[in-house]
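Exercise 4. Each item below gives a protein and its sequence. For each, produce the structure-token representation.

Item: DNA-binding response regulator (Paenibacillus nasutitermitis).
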Amino acid sequence: MSKQILIVDDDPKIAQLIEIYLINEGLSIIKASDGLQALALMDTESVDLVILDIMMPGLDGLGVCLRIRESKTTPILMISAKDGDMDKITGLMTGADDYMVKPFNPLELVARVKSLLRRTYYQSQPKQQADHNVIQIQSLEIDKLTHKVTFEGRIIKLTPIEFGILFLLASQPGRVFSSEDIFEMIWKEKYYESNNSVTVHMSRLRDKLVKEMDGEKLIHTVWGVGYKIEA
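Answer:
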């Protein structure tokens, strides 16, 4: 079955342009022109990924992203005419998985969408090998096949990017991963200086883990080097 993409943008020309390129990739499209309509569709439709504009009248994209993240881990690609570093950080901190600045190359957007879908839904190993895809660290269990993380039986809701980072660190306890290592292994793209995506996602992931694990600190910073998990 084709993956269904929700495009949320109050500019019908941009929404139509994105739709044309994604349909050519065999993806199904539904559209919303404002935040409230987008939230209603999230409740009634099966949505595999959201392309979300920030600047919309009424409930803006940041507000929509926060509302979605209250109950769903659906991948979100945020688009905006704002190109400052703080604008990108704000978008990522509200729960977006990726951020693109308008005007953008439609082919790059398609590549970002396909990359997010692959990271979220592609299962590289058959289910009979599920025991190799479950990591147990004390009372924390990380299941790669179901993308589920639990602590003492309680589910910890993570976005696909957050899950990928956690599974990567937990798969090799004690190893220190640099920001460059994490970016290139999770995003599957070349790392570039001043890229703060890893820092933002790591901060959000650590906050969630500390909150859900009763203050226990799982991910440790090795200053000037990177991040690690001690088993």
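Check: The radius of gyration is 18 Å.
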